Structure to design on (610 residues):
């Protein structure tokens, strides 16, 4: 069969939570990233620990967008949908394009399966108005059983390999090299070589099934990278990239890395990843609760480490007292907030941007703290590095915002060269100040000197009570308290962050699209589509939120119309109105627990342009 070239394609794997859809999707995206394709992924799984098998609420999905050029989102809808059972087809078909190819396991569409999925008839394709000519109907379970009949595996373990057959078939459809997939499997199951080889056998069987039966309703395709940049690439999730960014910053600063954390979805993977790297001087402690995770990091910072604490929105509520302790003690600390749906337990596996005002203002007293937001899974590496640099050089806690979409999604990361990253130079107290130094003396930038314990002549005490700016002793003097409040605020205000960059029709846009953090790709894609339609549109996206870039007011007040689009009810818009006199933007707000849909953004922005 002839292999045609595509510019991009979107594939969505779906099935029960135990069907291994996340693994199949991850391997396919890794295979694609390795050949230089640009990728963007979106794992979409339920919050249930384990919903009943075959139920509508238990469906797990993984969507991957691969492109010859840069792709910014996982795609609104998919070109290929893999549905491992009836419930997956019922719930996931809405994510398929009208002409999408659909791969189903016919063995999982029996009468009992259809009843669980709430189909009314046995003609499930007709009931959903799906053209049978668009469906690859494969007896997948039967074929996997036949493939592994002599493997010695128990029936339950055999069924766990069904995802690999689907993966092999998709790899055939898109002319993927199986060697990368095989290496991934061997590495993942290094301690279980028999399991690894069984999975590899099934992947090959799925690939051969496609080849032998020409199982395609749309043809066979290849996505060839157009603009190849030399280097080593890896498919990396945002959480893993964040962990690596912290390790890189500690290495650059010549410090040990400490993480004090308490497990919470969707931030726990950072703890898991960092715990693997003791050989790099990383120390991780799984604490008994959120406040102790943060308080232990404050202690590690006092001791001279690059200290990090990780959590999600509910944990920020609990950590706020210890975060405030770091503010008044003026110690470096990075607080990672992987935002999720709320309030309360809310939607723990879904994504929102609803913690912004909490991390800006959710503490008692005047408690200024820098806030950054990563813009993509691969940007998490740079964001973690720069947040660490800011904390260490400005002697302050820094909040780094990601979100479930960015943290669990992945992209193709070109492995960075640390020599190209800026130096990290903490303000250690100079040796010549021995004997005259007091804990709150500052350098020319207004930053408190850092005296790491163990240096004779620099012994000192810090704590949560206000201190005298000159002596470091406890002080309740009103004038001193006001002075210390001003000094702490000025230290944050004077941080130099990069200017706000405007993309698109920079000079003559009729509409400026503004956002922050993980919505960058969707807003950029919406801008591109609007410009292709002939509209004059620009985009400005915030990565540094407190302090704001110095040119923020100039940018926001330059354009006729500005819309602030965010996955909350208007928190960034409110903050910008507070900071920029006379700024009155339009707003686009959604709180659905799902990423923006580019088509919806385009329609909404077109209405504003009329």
């Amino acid at each position: 069969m002839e292999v045609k070239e595509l510019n991009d394609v979107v594939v969505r794997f779906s099935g029960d939570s135990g069907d291994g859809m996340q693994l199949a999707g991850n391997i396919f995206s890794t295979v694609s990233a390795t050949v230089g394709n640009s990728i963007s992924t979106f794992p979409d799984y339920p919050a249930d620990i384990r919903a009943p098998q075959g139920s509508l609420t238990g469906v797990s999905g993984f969507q991957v967008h691969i492109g010859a050029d840069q792709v910014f989102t996982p795609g609104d809808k998919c070109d290929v949908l893999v549905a491992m059972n009836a419930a997956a087809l019922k719930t996931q078909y809405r994510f398929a394009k009208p002409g999408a190819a659909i791969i189903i396991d016919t063995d999982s569409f029996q009468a009992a399966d259809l009843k669980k999925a709430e189909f009314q008839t046995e003609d499930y394709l007709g009931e959903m108005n799906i053209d049978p000519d668009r469906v690859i109907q494969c007896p997948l379970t039967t074929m996997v059983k036949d493939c592994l009949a002599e493997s010695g595996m128990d029936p339950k373990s055999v069924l766990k390999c069904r995802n690999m057959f689907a993966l092999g078939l998709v790899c055939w459809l898109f002319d993927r090299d199986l060697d990368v997939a095989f290496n991934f499997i061997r590495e993942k199951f290094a301690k279980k070589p028999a399991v690894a080889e069984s999975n590899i056998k099934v992947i090959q069987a799925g690939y051969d099934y496609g080849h032998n039966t020409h199982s395609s309703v749309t043809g066979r395709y290849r996505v060839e990278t157009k603009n190849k940049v030399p280097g080593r690439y890896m498919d990396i999730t945002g959480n893993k990239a964040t962990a690596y960014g912290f390790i890189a910053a500690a290495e650059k600063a010549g410090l040990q890395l400490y993480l004090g954390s308490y497990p919470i979805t969707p931030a726990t993977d950072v703890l898991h990843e960092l715990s693997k790297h003791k050989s790099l001087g990383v120390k991780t402690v799984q604490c008994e609760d959120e406040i102790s995770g943060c308080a232990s990091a404050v202690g590690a910072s006092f001791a001279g480490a690059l200290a990090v604490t990780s959590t999600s929105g509910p944990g920020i509520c609990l950590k706020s007292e210890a975060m405030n302790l770091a503010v008044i003690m003026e110690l470096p600390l990075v607080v990672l907030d992987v935002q999720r749906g709320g309030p309360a337990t809310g939607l723990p596996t879904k994504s929102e941007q609803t913690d912004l005002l909490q991390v800006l203002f959710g503490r008692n007293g005047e408690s200024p703290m820098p806030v950054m937001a990563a813009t993509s899974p691969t940007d998490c590496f740079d964001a973690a590095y720069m947040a660490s640099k800011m904390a260490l050089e400005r002697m302050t806690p820094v909040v780094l915002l990601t979100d479930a979409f960015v943290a669990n999604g992945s992209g193709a990361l070109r492995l960075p060269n640390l020599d190209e990253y800026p130096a990290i130079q903490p303000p250690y107290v100079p040796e010549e100040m021995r004997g005259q130094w007091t804990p709150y003396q500052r350098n020319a930038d207004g930053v408190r000197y850092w005296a790491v314990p163990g240096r004779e002549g620099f012994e000192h005490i810090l704590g949560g009570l206000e201190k005298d700016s000159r002596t470091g002793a406890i002080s309740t003097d009103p004038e001193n308290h006001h002075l210390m409040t001003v000094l702490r605020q000025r230290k944050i205000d004077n941080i130099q962050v990069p200017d706000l960059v405007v993309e698109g029709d920079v000079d003559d846009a009729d509409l400026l699209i503004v956002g922050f953090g993980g919505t960058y790709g969707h807003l950029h894609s919406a801008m591109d589509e609007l410009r292709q339609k002939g509209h004059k549109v620009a985009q400005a996206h915030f990565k540094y939120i407190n302090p704001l870039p110095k040119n923020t007011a100039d940018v926001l007040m330059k354009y006729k119309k500005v819309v602030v689009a965010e996955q909350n009810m208007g928190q960034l818009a409110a903050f910008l109105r507070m900071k920029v006199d006379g700024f009155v933007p339009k707003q686009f707000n959604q709180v659905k627990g799902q990423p923006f849909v580019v088509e919806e953004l385009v329609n909404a922005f077109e209405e504003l342009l009329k």
Q: What stands out?
A: The first helix runs from residue 21 to 34. The CA atoms of residues 147 and 363 lie 59 Å apart. The two ends are 48 Å apart (CA to CA).
